Amino acid sequence: MKGFEKFKVCVYRLVLFALCVLVTAYFLVPYVFKNVLYVRQFEEFVTDASKRYDVDESLIFAVIKSESNFNVHAVSSMNAKGLMQLLDSTAGEMLYQLSDDSLSEDLFDPRNNIFIGTKYLSVLIKRYNSVPLAIAAYNGGIGNVDKWIADGTVSKEDADSLDNIPFAETRMYVKKVLRTYNIYEMLYK
Q: Which carries the bigger pLDDT value, residue 20 or residue 96?
């Protein structure tokens, strides 16, 4: 009988330990996701840019997370700069369209980068009337996406056609941004 009592105590302790782990995970996992993995740095700028250019905040955060992981000093091998990894030429074109004296060409300034990058996203979303295609163009270029649409490689109406994107980097980028976008939506909406 003593062996069975020891077994019951061990099972009881194991169940109690498992319950403690589950309760801790229940509270800790959302905290870690929100405060470590999927932060919302520069929220004031993102909120303002979102309202000004009618782009979902979660999408802006997803692009920043995917592009630079919130590193304001990030520079890519293609010389894209800042939080949203903008090329000087793209930034210059957007600044020309914006004609906003409060913004400058300093792409390492978070406000400038977020406003210019969000303006560019809004232009792409309006052009394609599709967030996934806008994301593809953000990474792979407008000319390439236009070509893929024209030759039937991708379709505005068929989300599954995104698996046909010829550039592996762009194909994976679209999936990554959309996955990150969905996580931001789930955590913060």
A: 96
Query: What type of residue is 139?
Result: N
- What interhelical angle do 131-140 and 57-67 show, nearest 10? 30
Structure tokens that stand for 22 in this block: 């589950």
Does the annotation mark 157 as catalytic? Answer: no
- Summarised one tens digit per residue, pLDDT across range 67-126 is 999 999 999 999 999 999 999 999 999 999 988 888 888 999 999 999 999 999 999 999
One-letter identity of residue 65: K
- Nearest-angstrom CA–CA distance, 46 and 49: 5
9-34: b or e for each residue (b if 16 or more CB lie within 10 Å)?
eeeeeeeeeeeeeeeeeeeeeeeeee
Give backbone dihedrals phi and psi of 163, rounded to 5 degrees, phi first: -65, -15
User: What are the structure tokens assigned to 103, written together?
Assistant: 């913004």
Per-residue pLDDT, averaged over 165-178, amounts to: 96
What is the amino acid identity at position 95? L
Q: Is 82 left (phi over 0), alpha (psi -120 to 50) or beta?
A: left
Instruction: Look up residue 27 and give its two tokens.
Output: 């509270």
CB crowding 143-163: b at 16 or more within 10 Å, else e:
ebbeebbeeeebeeeeeebbe
Cβ pair 158, 116 in contact under 8 A: no
**Catalytic residue selected from 67, 105, 169, 185:** 67
> Residue 118's pLDDT is what?
98
* pTM of the model as a whole: 0.84
